[in-house]
Amino acid sequence: MVCGAFDIARSSYYEHRMTRSCVDVERLEQRAKVNELFTQSRSSAGSRTITVLMQENGFDVGRFKVRRLMREMNLICKQPGPHAYKQATIERPDIPNRLNREFDATAPNQAWCGDITYVWVQNRWCYLAVVLDLFSRRIVGWAFSERPDGALVVKALDMAFEQRGRPAGLLFHSDQGSQYASRVFRQRLWRYRIQQSMSRRGNCWDNAPMERLFRSYKSEWMPDAGYSSVQEAQRDISFYLMERYNWQRPHQYNDGVPPGKVEEKLNLLSGIR
Question: What is the pTM of this model?
Answer without folding.
Answer: 0.72
